[in-house]
Amino acid sequence: MADVEAALDAAGLKNQHVREYVKYWAEHTGAERVEVVSAADDARLISEALEAGELLPAGEGLYYSRSYFKDTARSEERTIVATNNPADAGTYNNWRPAAEMTALQKENMRGAMAGKTMYVIPYLMSQPASPLERFAAGVQVTDNRPVVLHMIRMARVGVEYIENLQDPNSFVRAVHVTGDLPNLGQGTPDDKRYFVTVADERTILHFGSSYGGNALLGKIAHGLRQAAYDGWASGQFLSEQFMLIGITDKQTGRKYHICGGFPSASGKTNLAMMLAPDDLGDRYHVEFYGDDIAWLWVGEDGKLYAMNPEFGVFGVAKDTNETTNPTALGSIQPGSGAIFTNVAYNPQTQEVWWEGRTKNPPSPVDGWLDWKGNPIADREPGNTEPWAHPNSRFTTTLSKVPNIASDFEEPQGVPIDAIIFGGRTRDREPLIRAITDLAEGVYDGLTLGAEATFAAEGVDGQLRYDPMSMRPFMSYPEAAYAAHWLKIVGAAKDKPIFAHVNWFQRGEDGRFLWPGYRDNLRPLLWLMQLKNGEVSGVETPVGILPKKDELDLTGVQVTPEDLDRILSIDVARWRQEMGFREEHLKQFDGLPEEIWEAHRRVAAALDAAK
């Protein structure tokens, strides 16, 4: 049995509440050893993981890991929000009673660390001294050394973050047990995996994975689900799956900050890591703050502020290359300490590769292994299975991102000028439409969606709605969520402008009408000019669209016909969309009347349009 007291003493961990928590779980899980870790332990832990074969070298200061082949992504159906109040049940949060889920997870975890080391990870999901620091401290226990290494990259890790809490009992208790992965019945009726956030007890209990947000509990479970619940319960802030960027106009010296939500595969990470196009680079500089989570609150000066609570990037590798995202590649260079997961790997050359990294796969294929560890050379002719898993990832720290904002460590956050939403639709959504009314902006976020598989859905043009891009991360009811948005953003004296963007309109021939990537800066610059009163745009029933001569299109390859298409709306298609939206919103009992009024205003304007 582990000598818990000695381990905590050696680490200088004096917080009595933390000590009791760690001791309980060490005894409950039967851990053989307890080790408290900090960021300073990274090099030693890397060395130990390499020696144990848990990581493999992938070049100088780069590492490769491979998860169990059935453990490669979030599992939404196994992800639960539990509380002691049945009224907390929403449409999307998979609510269950706290007592039921706690008992189940404790039984799953009983004795499950026998013979293993329990690593204790004190962490902070904010900058030290942030206005929201009291919601940011956590202590994760885990039996998995690679999880520790990922957490060191994704959060601020060290005993100092929990030793000086204003309320020493205010930390999130985050328990992760890997489990016997080959014998958990993944995807069967006997599936033993559960990923539970007991939100009103600020406790996270995850069992049955060693992958990503299932195991890095500071990230999604704390940074989004728990924080969203805390923000609502306290009435103080929003926690959203938002990217956050800064844009500096070097000619005027003015800096703008934009955050926003995008459903999966809608371009969020590429936008977050965007660089200015060559033709605009002399005037504009884009800075990266974060690609996945933003906490938003109103400061004492009445402005809406945001910050990225994470310390790193857990990026999707697929299709990341010099064209789509040179910034991402710059963040995972030799010496960066990046960890690649479930990409293709060549142990002879220590190279990694994924689909989209280069136009063609490496050749010859000798020595290359796919993400499951199988030799590519042994494949049958015509085998087109991907070399890397579609959800393969890289993990790196924010400081390694080439255009990381100079003030990303500042605790006060940054003032927000605009909140944008972006889905992936072939039609109906123009390049950008601005919304100046708060209720209509929140309404637009609640009806955010991306194209569904039409054949599967059975209704041509129906979107899979993903409110604010938070559908998999909701922790309290959607009607309360809408009301909380209206309250928090409504309290700002200088409110941000809202907008909806769409980089993915297609022509009749199937080609994209807008070049995207770095050119996506152009409509965002127009949005800032609109907020400043420098342009007027064109009023439509669904928002303000740019006039063609208001967009800076220097160097852009886009035809006048394509530009007309992406700067207009299809009224008939939008009228159909309003019916879908109404059915979607009806799911949320008690939705604020302001949202319904916004819906009716937009519908009436469309009905009146020619």
Question: In words, what does this structure look like?
Answer:
The protein is an alpha/beta fold and 610 residues long. Helices cover 27% and strands 21% of the residues. It is built from 17 helices and 30 strands. Strands 1, 4, 5, 6, 7, 8, 9, 10 and 11 form a nine-stranded mixed beta sheet that branches. The protein has a six-stranded mixed beta sheet with strand order 15-13-14-24-28-25, sandwiched between helices. The chain is globular. It starts with a helix and ends with a helix. Residues 453-458 have low confidence and may be disordered.
Helix run count: 17
Helix content: 25-40%
Mean pLDDT: 96
- Strand pairing plus helix content: what structural class? alpha/beta
Q: State the shape.
A: globular
Please summarize the sheet with the most strands.
Answer: 9 strands, mixed
